[in-house]
Amino acid sequence: MKKLVIIAIITGAMLSSCSTKDSVNPLLTEWDTQFGIPPFEDIKLEHYMPAYLEGMKQHKAQIQEIINNPQEPNFENTIVAYDNSGDILRKVAPVFSSLNSVNSSPEVLALAKELSPLTSKHYNEISLNDSLFLRVKSVYDKIETLNLNPEQTRLLTEMYKGFVRNGAELAPDKKEELKEINSKISSLQLSFGQNLLAETANYKLVIDNEEDLAGLSESLINAAKVTDENSDYAGKWVFGLDNPSVMPFLQQSDKRELRKEILDAYLNRCNNDNEFDNKEVIKELITLRLKRANLLGFDNFADYQLETRMAKKTDAVYSLLNQLWTPALKSAKQELADMTLIAKAHNKDISKLEAYDWRYYFEKAMASKFNLSDNELRPYFKLENVREGIFYVANQLYGVTFTQLEGTPLPHPEAIAFECKEADGTHLGVLFMDMFARPGAKRGGAWCGRFRTQVYSNGQRISPLVTVVGNFTRPSGDKPALLSLDETETYFHEFGHALESLFKDVTYYGVGGMTRDFVELPSQIMEHWAFEPQVLKVYAKHYETGEVIPQELVDKIEKAGKYGQGFATTEYLAASILDMDFHILNSIPKNIDILKFEQESMSKLGLISQIPPRYRSTYFNHTFGGGYTAGYYSYIWAEVLDSDAYQAFVETGDIFNKEVATKFRKEILSRGGQDEAMTLYVNFRGKEPGIDALLKNRGLN
Question: Which positions are annotated as active-site residues?
């Protein structure tokens, strides 16, 4: 850490004298690349700290300029000026965030830990700046007389509320306490994620006996084979805890004891009482979050979080989750009964199925019920073909096209870039895709981010730079990357987020974001097209023969689509309820036992032992790493919306109905946070959604 500080001081000194080529920091120059893409290849690790320091320095100066403006506070000199401030940080932060997420290293992790308190302190000082808040409040108090348009009114209202929610009206001593709490929360969330990254990378299931590979597909075996002669594992097969490795292993391996070993390791990440253990991190986090909520006038952290979301109240969240729990658990128990019969016929020694048996016997149940297996389907879902299918759907709905860019800077050597254009050829934005797992360097899961968000500047549209990131199955030997149905659906999902970013058409940064429980609507509605027969016929082609997926398999996919929803819905709901249970606490015992709390939370639901929650506490990065804190329910909340919204297409008899697509884009995808989420939805659909379409889609009705 000391070394990084020295680098920062030296490089910072160089900033004042950037006369030679070697001293130029590319993060602080004008990006004259194609479409203003960050010059990724020119950016070195030592560039980040001085860029952040300079960005914070200039941001402070911009804030001070707003405060010192002798003119009476008005919408332009205060609200717009504040909305536009921090331009350097807005450029630099997404680039470093991407590096930290997709290509991390011990040096990157160390820098992230050093930057965390600096940036937290910086933004706390701004959000708790009395003079700045008074100017914002002065404009807000005159809102009725300002003759603002609806977007401007929304920006001013949300900006004022944001200051209040961040503690602007607290007493001076409480503000200092809040700053300290915020800094600690930021640091702990970062530590949680870094611990998870390390634990996921550290575990290896090493197989050196070919008999222990029984049941595994050729592609999985080839992917696990270590061919590097200099490796300690040369000639052996290594399986890890990244999803493209562990999930197929659990589905396919005939070796029950090995399935148990790898699932135990997966479920106990950051729960091994070592340097990467997250139990104490969770204790501190939930305690500090509660203190933060109490300081700001809320009984618990969930109440604080939900105030600005569609749900508004914890009762509304639990009501939805509980409505779904009973039919989901009933369905899961039926699936368990099916698998138990198959397991007993398959292995007389099994008296009871365990969690490590579920995926294995579910595959056999699928084969028995529908004569369908993952290995049979993968050859038709080559990654590149799936991508073309995604582009096809976007083109059919909205007329947009995607053309691969050559020679442009990339956030990682494995990434590729596409230019997105309107039907008339107008440039919309750039989309990066980085889809393969890199255990230990890339964080798990899949996500969509932005290097630049869409706004208007001086009447000119600033086009977005969007990135979709996944942890998909890699090519193996002479086989290309062949995706599972789950990976295919995930690809469509994240692309839905990308479309929302590309189609956004807002004037100000402050109204660009959707609320957490609304933002999954654009992504989840895209999933509906993934396995529609007419879409499958376009992109699902055998990677060797080019044969279009046969109608027999399409029918099987459709028939089997709802089977397994008991497990999928139950494990998801369990995690959502666990997240909420932690954050509705009005008091937290000093000696709270995290694992016992989790067990009691699940026991009261009647969760069966064969289904652990999708994320156990110690690796539940959605909530304890930040982002979806008291918000993991958002996926199912948004599914009520996307199921209902997709019916708007189905009801016309045309799933590519241009009129409906245009309205969906205009009223939802382009609007960001320009109005209340339910208002935007009703503008599109004409009514509020019900739960029936969701239950039907999941086969839980």
Answer: 494
